[in-house]
Amino acid sequence: MTRESHSTIQNQAAAGQLVEQALQCLEEADTFTAIEFLNQQPKPLVVAAAYNDLVKDLYWQKRNMATMAALCRAGIQFCLDQAEETALTDRNKTADLRSAAKQLAFNLASFTWPGWDEPEIELDPSQTADGLDAARLNLRLALELDKGDLALSRAYWMLAGHLLAAHAATGAEATYRRAALYAGRAGDDAEKLLALAFAALVRWMMEPESDGRRQVFATAREKLTTLAEGPAYLAQIDGARRVFFSFQ
What we know:
Oligomer: single chain
Strand content: under 5%
Order of helices and strands: HHHHHHHHHHH
Largest sheet: none
Distance between the termini: 58 Å
Number of domains: 2
Protein backbone atom coordinates (compact mmCIF):
# COMPACT_ATOMS: atom_id res chain seq x y z
CA MET A 1 0.00 0.00 0.00
CA THR A 2 1.36 3.42 -0.93
CA ARG A 3 1.62 6.25 1.57
CA GLU A 4 -0.98 8.20 -0.40
CA SER A 5 -3.56 5.39 -0.36
CA HIS A 6 -2.94 4.78 3.33
CA SER A 7 -3.58 8.47 3.98
CA THR A 8 -6.76 8.33 1.92
CA ILE A 9 -8.06 5.39 3.96
CA GLN A 10 -7.23 7.22 7.17
CA ASN A 11 -9.08 10.32 5.97
CA GLN A 12 -12.11 8.25 4.99
CA ALA A 13 -12.17 6.63 8.42
CA ALA A 14 -11.80 10.02 10.12
CA ALA A 15 -14.61 11.47 8.01
CA GLY A 16 -16.80 8.51 8.94
CA GLN A 17 -16.22 9.16 12.62
CA LEU A 18 -17.13 12.82 12.18
CA VAL A 19 -20.35 11.83 10.43
CA GLU A 20 -21.36 9.61 13.33
CA GLN A 21 -20.63 12.36 15.83
CA ALA A 22 -22.47 14.96 13.74
CA LEU A 23 -25.51 12.67 13.51
CA GLN A 24 -25.43 12.38 17.28
CA CYS A 25 -25.38 16.17 17.53
CA LEU A 26 -28.44 16.31 15.29
CA GLU A 27 -30.25 13.73 17.37
CA GLU A 28 -29.42 15.23 20.75
CA ALA A 29 -29.30 18.95 19.92
CA ASP A 30 -29.77 20.86 16.64
CA THR A 31 -28.26 21.60 13.24
CA PHE A 32 -26.24 24.51 14.59
CA THR A 33 -24.51 22.24 17.09
CA ALA A 34 -23.63 19.78 14.33
CA ILE A 35 -22.29 22.55 12.09
CA GLU A 36 -20.27 24.09 14.92
CA PHE A 37 -18.82 20.68 15.77
CA LEU A 38 -17.74 19.99 12.19
CA ASN A 39 -16.32 23.45 11.56
CA GLN A 40 -14.11 23.23 14.65
CA GLN A 41 -12.29 20.11 13.43
CA PRO A 42 -8.63 20.59 12.43
CA LYS A 43 -8.47 19.02 8.94
CA PRO A 44 -10.59 20.93 6.40
CA LEU A 45 -10.51 18.26 3.69
CA VAL A 46 -11.64 15.61 6.17
CA VAL A 47 -14.43 17.93 7.30
CA ALA A 48 -15.42 18.50 3.66
CA ALA A 49 -15.63 14.74 3.12
CA ALA A 50 -17.69 14.39 6.29
CA TYR A 51 -20.14 17.06 5.12
CA ASN A 52 -20.53 15.25 1.80
CA ASP A 53 -21.15 11.87 3.44
CA LEU A 54 -23.48 13.42 5.99
CA VAL A 55 -25.76 15.11 3.47
CA LYS A 56 -25.96 11.90 1.43
CA ASP A 57 -26.98 10.00 4.56
CA LEU A 58 -29.61 12.62 5.39
CA TYR A 59 -31.03 12.35 1.88
CA TRP A 60 -30.78 8.66 1.01
CA GLN A 61 -31.28 7.11 4.43
CA LYS A 62 -33.19 9.58 6.58
CA ARG A 63 -35.05 11.49 3.87
CA ASN A 64 -34.69 14.63 5.97
CA MET A 65 -34.75 17.36 3.36
CA ALA A 66 -34.70 20.40 5.65
CA THR A 67 -31.67 19.22 7.62
CA MET A 68 -29.92 17.98 4.49
CA ALA A 69 -30.27 21.39 2.83
CA ALA A 70 -29.07 23.23 5.95
CA LEU A 71 -26.00 21.00 6.34
CA CYS A 72 -25.23 21.13 2.64
CA ARG A 73 -25.24 24.92 2.54
CA ALA A 74 -23.10 25.01 5.68
CA GLY A 75 -20.63 22.58 4.10
CA ILE A 76 -20.40 24.61 0.90
CA GLN A 77 -19.69 27.78 2.85
CA PHE A 78 -17.11 26.00 5.01
CA CYS A 79 -15.25 24.73 1.94
CA LEU A 80 -15.29 28.11 0.20
CA ASP A 81 -14.13 29.93 3.35
CA GLN A 82 -11.32 27.43 3.95
CA ALA A 83 -10.28 27.66 0.31
CA GLU A 84 -10.01 31.42 0.65
CA GLU A 85 -7.76 31.03 3.70
CA THR A 86 -5.34 28.77 1.80
CA ALA A 87 -5.37 30.71 -1.48
CA LEU A 88 -1.96 32.30 -0.92
CA THR A 89 -0.22 29.34 0.70
CA ASP A 90 -1.40 26.08 -0.88
CA ARG A 91 -2.99 26.23 -4.33
CA ASN A 92 -3.55 22.48 -4.48
CA LYS A 93 -5.47 22.51 -1.22
CA THR A 94 -7.45 25.52 -2.39
CA ALA A 95 -8.46 23.67 -5.55
CA ASP A 96 -9.38 20.56 -3.55
CA LEU A 97 -11.57 22.57 -1.20
CA ARG A 98 -13.32 24.39 -4.03
CA SER A 99 -13.86 21.03 -5.73
CA ALA A 100 -15.42 19.77 -2.51
CA ALA A 101 -17.71 22.82 -2.51
CA LYS A 102 -18.64 22.01 -6.10
CA GLN A 103 -19.53 18.42 -5.19
CA LEU A 104 -21.74 19.59 -2.35
CA ALA A 105 -23.37 22.15 -4.63
CA PHE A 106 -24.13 19.49 -7.23
CA ASN A 107 -25.60 17.21 -4.57
CA LEU A 108 -27.79 19.98 -3.18
CA ALA A 109 -29.02 20.82 -6.67
CA SER A 110 -29.73 17.17 -7.44
CA PHE A 111 -31.39 16.37 -4.14
CA THR A 112 -33.75 19.35 -4.44
CA TRP A 113 -34.78 18.85 -8.07
CA PRO A 114 -38.46 17.86 -8.22
CA GLY A 115 -38.06 16.30 -11.65
CA TRP A 116 -36.88 12.99 -10.18
CA ASP A 117 -40.54 12.42 -9.27
CA GLU A 118 -39.80 10.61 -6.02
CA PRO A 119 -43.15 10.26 -4.22
CA GLU A 120 -41.65 10.07 -0.74
CA ILE A 121 -39.77 13.36 -1.17
CA GLU A 122 -41.62 16.60 -0.47
CA LEU A 123 -39.89 19.83 -1.41
CA ASP A 124 -40.94 23.30 -0.35
CA PRO A 125 -40.20 26.46 -2.38
CA SER A 126 -37.22 27.43 -0.23
CA GLN A 127 -35.56 24.08 -0.91
CA THR A 128 -36.03 24.27 -4.67
CA ALA A 129 -34.68 27.84 -4.51
CA ASP A 130 -31.64 26.46 -2.67
CA GLY A 131 -31.27 23.95 -5.48
CA LEU A 132 -31.29 26.57 -8.21
CA ASP A 133 -28.72 28.62 -6.32
CA ALA A 134 -26.55 25.53 -5.86
CA ALA A 135 -26.87 24.59 -9.54
CA ARG A 136 -25.56 28.02 -10.50
CA LEU A 137 -22.65 27.67 -8.09
CA ASN A 138 -21.86 24.19 -9.38
CA LEU A 139 -21.62 25.54 -12.94
CA ARG A 140 -19.50 28.52 -11.88
CA LEU A 141 -17.05 26.28 -10.06
CA ALA A 142 -16.92 23.80 -12.95
CA LEU A 143 -15.85 26.69 -15.18
CA GLU A 144 -13.41 28.23 -12.69
CA LEU A 145 -11.78 24.89 -11.88
CA ASP A 146 -11.62 23.85 -15.54
CA LYS A 147 -13.34 20.55 -14.81
CA GLY A 148 -13.69 19.60 -18.47
CA ASP A 149 -16.46 19.13 -20.99
CA LEU A 150 -18.35 16.29 -19.32
CA ALA A 151 -18.49 18.08 -15.97
CA LEU A 152 -19.71 21.20 -17.76
CA SER A 153 -22.37 19.19 -19.58
CA ARG A 154 -23.67 17.80 -16.29
CA ALA A 155 -23.54 21.24 -14.67
CA TYR A 156 -25.60 22.74 -17.50
CA TRP A 157 -28.01 19.78 -17.38
CA MET A 158 -28.59 20.28 -13.66
CA LEU A 159 -29.06 24.02 -14.06
CA ALA A 160 -31.50 23.46 -16.92
CA GLY A 161 -33.58 21.20 -14.70
CA HIS A 162 -33.84 23.86 -12.03
CA LEU A 163 -34.68 26.54 -14.56
CA LEU A 164 -37.50 24.29 -15.75
CA ALA A 165 -38.68 23.82 -12.16
CA ALA A 166 -38.62 27.62 -11.77
CA HIS A 167 -40.98 27.95 -14.79
CA ALA A 168 -38.18 29.43 -16.95
CA ALA A 169 -38.80 27.11 -19.89
CA THR A 170 -37.00 29.18 -22.53
CA GLY A 171 -33.84 29.35 -20.44
CA ALA A 172 -34.14 25.67 -19.60
CA GLU A 173 -34.30 24.63 -23.25
CA ALA A 174 -31.26 26.72 -24.17
CA THR A 175 -29.33 25.35 -21.20
CA TYR A 176 -30.20 21.74 -22.06
CA ARG A 177 -28.81 22.41 -25.52
CA ARG A 178 -25.57 23.69 -24.00
CA ALA A 179 -25.43 20.50 -21.95
CA ALA A 180 -25.79 18.50 -25.18
CA LEU A 181 -23.05 20.57 -26.83
CA TYR A 182 -20.52 19.84 -24.08
CA ALA A 183 -21.51 16.17 -23.86
CA GLY A 184 -20.80 15.93 -27.59
CA ARG A 185 -17.41 17.59 -27.10
CA ALA A 186 -16.69 15.05 -24.37
CA GLY A 187 -17.61 12.21 -26.70
CA ASP A 188 -20.49 11.05 -24.51
CA ASP A 189 -23.27 10.34 -26.98
CA ALA A 190 -25.60 8.99 -24.28
CA GLU A 191 -25.58 12.17 -22.22
CA LYS A 192 -25.83 14.23 -25.41
CA LEU A 193 -28.99 12.38 -26.43
CA LEU A 194 -30.41 12.69 -22.92
CA ALA A 195 -29.92 16.46 -22.92
CA LEU A 196 -31.43 16.77 -26.41
CA ALA A 197 -34.44 14.70 -25.34
CA PHE A 198 -34.99 17.03 -22.39
CA ALA A 199 -34.67 20.05 -24.69
CA ALA A 200 -37.30 18.51 -26.96
CA LEU A 201 -39.55 17.84 -23.98
CA VAL A 202 -39.32 21.50 -22.93
CA ARG A 203 -40.16 22.69 -26.44
CA TRP A 204 -43.22 20.43 -26.46
CA MET A 205 -44.25 21.77 -23.06
CA MET A 206 -44.01 25.30 -24.46
CA GLU A 207 -46.29 24.33 -27.35
CA PRO A 208 -48.33 21.38 -26.03
CA GLU A 209 -50.83 21.49 -28.91
CA SER A 210 -48.12 21.12 -31.55
CA ASP A 211 -47.98 17.68 -33.17
CA GLY A 212 -44.58 18.62 -34.60
CA ARG A 213 -43.12 19.32 -31.15
CA ARG A 214 -44.59 16.09 -29.82
CA GLN A 215 -43.03 14.12 -32.68
CA VAL A 216 -39.61 15.71 -32.15
CA PHE A 217 -39.78 14.65 -28.51
CA ALA A 218 -40.92 11.14 -29.43
CA THR A 219 -38.01 10.79 -31.88
CA ALA A 220 -35.49 12.02 -29.32
CA ARG A 221 -36.91 9.62 -26.74
CA GLU A 222 -36.80 6.72 -29.21
CA LYS A 223 -33.07 7.25 -29.84
CA LEU A 224 -32.40 6.58 -26.17
CA THR A 225 -33.87 3.08 -26.43
CA THR A 226 -30.79 1.97 -28.39
CA LEU A 227 -28.42 2.74 -25.52
CA ALA A 228 -27.29 0.60 -22.60
CA GLU A 229 -28.26 3.53 -20.36
CA GLY A 230 -31.61 3.75 -22.12
CA PRO A 231 -33.95 2.40 -19.42
CA ALA A 232 -32.52 4.69 -16.72
CA TYR A 233 -32.55 7.73 -18.98
CA LEU A 234 -36.09 7.04 -20.19
CA ALA A 235 -37.22 6.77 -16.57
CA GLN A 236 -35.67 10.20 -15.90
CA ILE A 237 -37.46 11.76 -18.86
CA ASP A 238 -40.81 10.15 -18.09
CA GLY A 239 -40.60 11.20 -14.44
CA ALA A 240 -39.85 14.78 -15.42
CA ARG A 241 -42.69 14.72 -17.93
CA ARG A 242 -45.15 13.66 -15.22
CA VAL A 243 -43.93 16.45 -12.92
CA PHE A 244 -43.57 19.35 -15.29
CA PHE A 245 -46.36 18.87 -17.79
CA SER A 246 -48.72 19.84 -14.98
CA PHE A 247 -47.28 23.36 -15.32
CA GLN A 248 -49.20 23.90 -18.55
